[in-house]
Amino acid sequence: MSEPEEARAACASVSVVTAEHPAVARNVAVTGGAASLTPPMDGAPMGQPGAGAAAQVRHHHRERAVVGDRWIARVLRVGAVVSGGMFVLSLGLEAMPQSERVHVAIDLLRKGAASLLLVTPVARLAVAGTLLGLRGEWRYMAMAAGVLGLLAIAVGTGIQA
């Protein structure tokens, strides 16, 4: 190889896709002929030796995001399951002998189930806003609080009317 070819080979860029986990892939640009294509042992991204602390911070933020997503999923799941159970119970009560108490119970169960279905997304918004605030994402927390405030104003206005 002649000198100009060696210089070009040493300055060539190679695009590599690395993955710490099958669900997380990222592109890394490797420049220079002497760069290693294997990630360092401390978990740092390729080409950034000693960046283990930054990788740990990113991992911690990912874990917190996953925990937040689980809380939001729990709120939605519990709301849907309890509401559905209330509807099914009201249908089961229809098979009972009809009386005033049974009609009142059916009515209360159906109204409660419908109300719970309406309140569940609002509870999800409150949980998401709180979790975003805990993560330091103030703009999104303020947006969630604004939407909750607008909902409160709309409900308050509707009740007074």
UniProtKB/TrEMBL annotation:
The chain crosses the membrane at residues 71-93, 113-134, 141-159. Keywords: Membrane, Transmembrane, Transmembrane helix. This is DUF1634 domain-containing protein.
